[in-house]
Amino acid sequence: MILLGVFLAVVLVLGLFVIALYNGMVRGRNLAEEAWSGISVQLKRRHDLIPNLVNVVKGYAAHESEVLEAVTRARAASVELSKSSDVRAVGEAEKGLSAALGRLFAVAENYPQLKANENFLHLQQTLSDTENEIQLARRYYNGASRDQNNRIQTFPANLIAGSFGFRKFEYFELDNESEREVPQVSF
Prior knowledge:
- This protein has one domain (about 30-175): Up-down Bundle (de novo design (two linked rop proteins)), CATH 1.20.1440.
- About 20% of the residues are buried.
- The protein is about 75% helix and about 0% strand.
- By secondary structure, it is mainly α.
- It is rod-shaped, with a radius of gyration of 24 Å.
- The protein has six helices and no strands.
């Protein structure tokens, strides 16, 4: 009778432990997914600003169509991939868009009237603010992903994480060291 009671107590404690581990992994997964949605919101905001910026520049720099088309193509690719949950593909598309925007701002330097245009300055500031928000969202996502990855890869949670379908989250990061540098745009 005592042996049966001890056995039931051990099973109960192990069951409660597995439930607590599972619930922690679910909370971590939900936090990382919520963090990814924060990045998506900021990327959509960025994507929505770009056509306005292109239109303002287009009025001043009509013969710079190659740069404007490159920004438009990069934006379209980013918008399409932003619907995906493939972190690496979204990151690559956003790198291409950032490069195209850098070229657009470099073109704007050649037009003093454009640099002084209130709409352009406002859009540039809003885009800069959005870039800061994207950076914060990336940090939050990467932190949530790190915590979840630690949670599912450490013992003893790693023993049950796979059987419940928990997977490792990819980080949203820059692969090329030169891309880590802040672009210089001066007016």
